[in-house]
Amino acid sequence: xxxxxxxxxxxxxxxxxxxxxxxxxxxxxxxxxxxxxxxxxxxxxxxxxxxxxxxxxxxxxxxxxxxxxxxxxxxxxxxxxxxxxxxxxxxxxxxxxxxxxxxxxxxxxxxxxxxxxxxxxxxxxxxxxxxxxxxxxxxxxxxxxxxxxxxxxxxxxxxxxxxxxxxxxxxxxxxxxxxxxxxxxxxxxxxxxxxxxxxxxxxxxxxxxxxxxxxxxxxxxxxxxxxxxxxxxxxxxxxxxxxxxxxxxxxxxxxxxxxxxxxxxxxxxxxxxxxxxxxxxxxxxxxxxxxxxxxxxxxxxxxxxxxxxxxxxxxxxxxxxxxxxxxxxxxxxxxxxxxxxxx
Length: 343
What we know:
This protein is mainly alpha-helical. Helix content is 68%, strand content 0%. It is built from 14 helices and no strands. The two termini are 28 Å apart.
């Protein structure tokens, strides 16, 4: 064979050799060890197919759920690492939702000013309850009127002189005072000495009602001295939890709160139940599979991107592996050859 013919054969083989080398390098760039055989790499395609099938199944499970949910919550149903994390976080928030939230949920609870309002309400109730216990045996606390009217009566009685009976204002003040008594045996002096307590009681009551007047959404919670702050405090704490969750898991975006603010209770209950009964097991399987893929292909950047759909990232990875593996298999006599030997 002439040297010209030999050179020609080398030129014909060079492109094929370069293609083999390039294919081996591309697979190596995914983090596949050089000692792994082509057969072992091909076997990993089965795992890729399994992840794709499970991911597609999860996406199909999401569809009927999304149809009944506010648009603002749809981002939690992405078949991706970020989507899985956000969905789990939303489920936790729904599971921890206090019963009162479905009655009192309002944007006012998402304001730190609510902490001060609730503290003020607690302060007024701390004043009202012992005073009520003190006053109830003697006066009708629901008929005390206003702070200004009580002060006017007290001033009139305190300023009366020896001839108070001749004063129409004094007689009126006396009549109004005795009208507050719970029984006819009580004397004017008995009720008169309670005026400081009555004024303090009504003042606390007015402050209590004024706080509720600032927030119409809370009006139904105003039960006067019997107001129960426990559910209101629980709702406020839940809104704080949502705020922390938004910062930690939703890149600071408040759409999750918007969605939860309009989510119907029956839809929330169904979502929590479906997640526990049907979704969680599949999500766990996919999560484990994706962790294995990240170990098998440690340099594959798209697998590390939490916001990329598994269907996209795994399909892209599979396409690369299939293409480069076919090139190597075409240039090798056996699939037992190691990747390092293909370069």
